[in-house]
Amino acid sequence: MAILLKTKKDLEGLRAANRIVAQALDYATSFIKPGLSLLEVDKKIDDFITSKGAYPAFKGLYGFPNAACLSLNEVIIHGIPDETILQEGDILGVDLGSKLNGYFGDSARTLPVGKISKADEDLIACSKDTLEFAIKTIRVGMHFKELSFEIEK
C-alpha cells in the first residue's frame, strides 16, 4: 500500500483530531480511580470526545461497541468495556480515537488505578522510556527489525 503524502491542510486536520485524543487521555488520567466501572469510564470518554465536536473513532468500527478500548490488567489490547469495577492496584490501558472533519486521531496510555506496586510503577516507567527511545531513534527507511534491535541494546 502506498503512503500518501499529507498536505498542510491534512496535517492541521490530523493535529486537531489528535489534540482531542491527547485531551481525552489527560481527562481520563484525572478521573480514573477505584470504584468506577469500565462502562462508566467509557461513557465519560465518549461524552468528552463528543463535547469537543468529534466522534469516538472506534465506536462502530468493525463492530466495536464502545468509544474506548479499556484493557484491564492481563488484557493485552483492545479490551471491551463492561461492568467490571476498577480496584486499587489495577493497571488500565486506555486506547481511544477521535474522528474530526474526516481526520483521525489515535493514542493510548497506561494508567495506574489508585496506588500500585513499585514493580508495576517500574514497568510503566520502563515502557514509557522505551517508547520515547523508539521515537528518538526511528528514521525514514528503517526496518522494524532494526528498531527492535536498537531497543534491545
Describe this structure in words.
This protein is α+β, with helices and mostly antiparallel strands. It folds into two domains: 8-114, Creatinase/methionine aminopeptidase superfamily (Creatine Amidinohydrolase, Alpha-Beta Complex), CATH 3.90.230.10; 117-153. Helices cover 44% and strands 18% of the residues. It has four helices and four strands; from the N terminus they run ααββββαα. Strands 1, 2, 3 and 4 form a four-stranded antiparallel beta sheet that branches. A hairpin with a 2-residue loop joins strand 3 and strand 4. Helix 1 runs antiparallel to helix 2 (38-51). It is globular, with a radius of gyration of 17 Å.
**What sequence of helices (H) and strands (E) makes up the elements?**
HHEEEEHH
The assigned CATH architecture of the largest domain is: Alpha-Beta Complex
Binned, the helix content reads 40-55%
Beta-strand percentage range: 15-25%
Q: Regions with pLDDT < 50 over 5+ consecutive residues?
A: none
